[in-house]
Each structure stands twice: as C-alpha cells, then as structure tokens.
Write a structure and sequence with these properties.
Number of domains: 2
CATH superfamily of the largest domain: EF-hand
Structural class: mainly alpha
Distance between the termini: 52 Å
Strand content: under 5%
Low-confidence stretches: none
Number of helices: 12
Shape: elongated
CATH class of the largest domain: Mainly Alpha
Largest sheet: none
CATH architecture of the largest domain: Orthogonal Bundle
Helix content: 55-70%
Length: 209
C-alpha cells in the first residue's frame, strides 16, 4: 500500500512512518469488501466503531470532499488526508478497536473509554469464559449465571454476596450483567484467566450438566 506523495503535498499533509503503518492496517480492516477503496458505508462503520457516529449524509459529504478522483469512494491516500484533516485519531487504541472482531468492537471501545488495561488475548479469553457461563446463550447473565461466575472464578458465592455483587456491577440496572460489566468485575477483582482455567471451567460445566 503506497501513498501518493504529490497528493499529500497538495493537501499539506505529512505522515510519519508509525502513522503510515497504523493507517495501512486500519484501511485494510475498514475496507470490508477488499476493493482497495473505502465507501461511505465503510467509513460510517469506522466512525461508529470509534465512538464518533455521524449522520450518513454528513459522511457522504466528507467522502465527496476528499474524493479527489471523483470515484465515489476514497483510496488510501485520500483516506489518510481525510483522517488528518478531520482530526480523527488513529493511535494504537483506535487501531485496536478497528482491527478487533466485529462482535468485540463495542467492548474494545468501552475498554478504551474506561481506561481498563486488558490485552487482546485477555479480552478473547474473558469473552470465552463469559459465553461459557452464559448458559442460556442470551448474550447477558442473569443472577443464577452470575453465581456461576463467582463460583468458578474463586470469588465468594454465598447467596447474599452474589446479590450484593450482582447489583454493584449491574451498572445500567438492567437486571442482567453484560460483557462490559463483566470486564469491570474482572478488572476490579484482579482476576487473571488462563487457557487452563477455561479448560477447567469447561470440564466442571460438563460434569454438572
């Protein structure tokens, strides 16, 4: 993936080596159809992933402004210029969100905003644990499933403790624990999950079925 230096110069935009690497990786992830260009929908999706949602018409106007060859889409250099001129950051945190699997992008944005430091591998392991203990596959945990979390992670699981901790981490008062709330619990309790732990949980669940 190469930059058009003349186009950059006309736009009065400079790009460092590190920025080039991040923009290249981001562009490849955003270009969902592998066309070599980013369309309005793909740019709209990126902005939403990064917590900067815009009206679709506004995104169309932005694409038109930076679409120098009038193709209706933006190539790599046009993308870099757009990002720079619009002041849309693409640091390591933003790149992490863009490159995350589709179902984890909201959680990666949540972690970024909340300042919670989990590695990508940790998030993937925690997601696996969450899905294992979400026994009815609803995408969230009721209090009975949450009791399994406290039990299998070695935390207190007395009935009164379960209710208290459940209420503490049910931050939106929905009556369930969602994955982002589960991440806050893990962070605050300092729990570390290994692949071995996941295998143990899988075995214990099979035994109890």
């Amino acid at each position: 993936m190469a930059l058009d230096r003349k186009m950059l110069s006309r736009a009065n935009v400079t790009v460092s080596g590190d920025e080039f690497e991040r923009y290249s990786r981001a562009f490849s992830s955003i270009d969902a159809d592998n066309s070599g260009e980013i369309n309005v929908q793909e740019l709209w999706d990126m902005l939403r992933w990064l917590g900067k949602p815009m009206d679709l018409q506004r995104v169309k106007e932005i694409v038109k402004r930076y679409d120098e060859d009038s193709s209706g889409e933006i190539g790599f250099t046009e993308f870099v210029i757009l990002m720079k001129k619009q002041g849309i950051p693409m640091g390591e945190s933003e790149l992490r969100i863009v490159e995350a699997p589709q179902d984890l992008k909201p959680s990666m944005l949540f972690l970024h905003k909340a300042g919670l430091n989990f590695t990508d591998d940790e998030v993937m392991r925690l997601r696996k644990v969450f899905l294992l203990l979400d026994t009815d596959h609803s995408g969230e945990m009721d209090i009975d499933e949450f009791a399994l979390v406290l039990k299998y992670l070695g935390l207190s699981h007395k009935q009164e403790d379960t209710v208290r901790v459940f209420r503490q981490f049910d931050q939106d008062n929905s009556g369930t624990i969602q994955f982002n709330e589960f991440l806050v619990l893990i962070h605050q309790k300092g729990v570390k999950i290994t692949n071995t732990d996941i295998k143990v949980i899988e075995t214990m669940l099979r035994v109890e079925q």
